[in-house]
Amino acid sequence: MKIDTLYRIFIRNPEISTDSRNVSKGSIFFALKGESFNGNQFAAQALKQGSSYAVVDEQKYVTDERYILVDDVLSSLQQLALFHRMHFNIPVIAITGTNGKTTTKALINSILIKRHHVVSTFGNLNNHIGVPLSLLNIKDNTEIAIIEMGANHRGEIAKLCELALPTHGMITNIGTAHLEGFGNIETIVRTKTELYEYLDKKGGTIFFNKGNNILADHLSEIGCEKISYGGKSGNYSGIVISSVPTLELKVLIDSNSLALKTNMFGAYNFENVLAAIRIGSYFNVEINTIIDTVESFKPNDNRSQIVNTAVNTLICDAYNANPTSMKLVIDDFLLMNSVKKVLILGDMFELGENTEKEHLKLIKYVSDKSFSRIFLIGKTFSTVNQTLQIPAFIDVDSFVKWLDKNPIKSSYILLKGSRGMKLEKIINYL
């Protein structure tokens, strides 16, 4: 089926489903394939659950007119998203980077919706599937779209740009992450800055942190509009007053020094807040509204969250982890004014051949710090841990069993690890 024909069907049925267990009535189900599943096999179930159409790429599953046969389901989803995107002449802000993408996107969204109709990436659906789904959420009344972009390999940001056609963009920062796909930090830099190259080629606008030397160096030959924030001085710069238990800062805006108190833990969120303030101001949100919004913003999904249980105070930052973000949050946690600070670290994923080396470096880094207790969870931590003073558990379930007999009380506790470790399962036992 041609994309323009599929698009006419989409206009009549503007909801997209990719999970047959959770379809919207009247939606179009796209039968995507994965390493361990074939969405074509679930097309009939999706139709039974309420989808109006099912897009499949295997003839044998087509049994009536509700099935739409295409050469490749994923490619068709992406082409449909691009076709839809091309119907809108609106700002599309692309956000990528090693750390802080989702939090920065959420902050920017919370500010821009005070003045504009905004569509933004849901959660961290920022890959070759998530970006098309986000684009297809753009409605006739949408004034600005915020699209988060993630990458595991060179060239992925460039491909996502060709789908989303961003007009504006920012890179939060660049650090050590996903080394399994990239191989080294230089490749990470080249991949993330593909966003700069796209915007330069298309005459877009780049928001950048003057205080980040890596990013600033890559902007020297970029000729498109560049909007700065951060740095040691100047407009939209600032200083951290306190990072624990929540981030407090002062920001210089149009010669006015403004104090903010956020609900987020950690100085590493300072750059995210500055970026959100700068972008909100650029899109004409009143500065008092921006400040009020930042101060009332509450993170979720185990990102820089402070959770008070009956017996402990938890710092939950367990949605993602890499060597850079690990060290940043640990350094801030060390500043907590508490005698009983407990560190619970889960394995970091997607580090490739550097996996054991990076985990061992982290163990050495925390072993001589002023923590009352340290616990390591995961196969890699358990394999490389040579410090008898630090207990290691093969998985979360093993640690929960230990906690059941050895409860932790009256402590500040940091939970940090990759999403796949599911450290959030521990919260109910703390």
List the helices and strands and how they pair.
Blueprint: H1 3-12, E1 16-17, E2 28-30, H2 43-49, E3 53-56, E4 67-69, H3 73-85, E5 92-96, H4 101-112, E6 118-120, H5 130-135, E7 144-148, H6 156-164, E8 168-171, H7 179-182, H8 185-192, H9 194-202, E9 205-209, H10 213-217, E10 225-229, E11 237-242, E12 248-253, E13 256-261, H11 270-282, H12 287-296, E14 305-308, E15 313-317, H13 323-333, E16 341-346, H14 355-367, E17 373-377, H15 379-384, E18 392-393, H16 396-405, E19 412-416
Parallel strand pairs: 1-2, 2-3, 3-4, 5-7, 5-8, 6-7, 8-9, 9-10, 15-19, 16-17, 16-19, 17-18
Antiparallel strand pairs: 11-12, 12-13, 14-15
Helix pairs in contact: 1-3, 4-11, 11-12, 13-14
Give structural notes.
The longest helix is centred in the first third of the chain and has 13 residues, at 73-85. The chain is α/β, with parallel strands linked by helices and 430 residues long. Helix 10 (213-217) links the parallel strand 9 and strand 10 (225-229). The protein folds into three domains: 3-71, 3-Layer(aba) Sandwich (Udp-n-acetylmuramoylalanyl-d-glutamate--2,6- Diaminopimelate Ligase, Chain: A, domain 1); 88-296, UDP-N-acetylmuramoyl-L-alanine:D-glutamate ligase, CATH 3.40.1190.10; 305-429, Mur ligase, C-terminal domain (Protein-Tyrosine Phosphatase, Chain A, Alpha-Beta Complex), CATH 3.90.190.20. It has 16 helices and 19 strands. The termini are far apart. The protein has helices at 3-12, 43-49, 73-85, 101-112, 130-135, 156-164, 179-182, 185-192, 194-202, 213-217, 270-282, 287-296, 323-333, 355-367, 379-384, 396-405; strands at residues 16-17, 28-30, 53-56, 67-69, 92-96, 118-120, 144-148, 168-171, 205-209, 225-229, 237-242, 248-253, 256-261, 305-308, 313-317, 341-346, 373-377, 392-393, 412-416. Helix content is 34%, strand content 20%. The radius of gyration is 23 Å and the shape is globular. Helix 1 (3-12) packs across helix 3, helix 11 (270-282) runs antiparallel to helix 12 and helix 13 (323-333) runs parallel beside helix 14 (355-367).
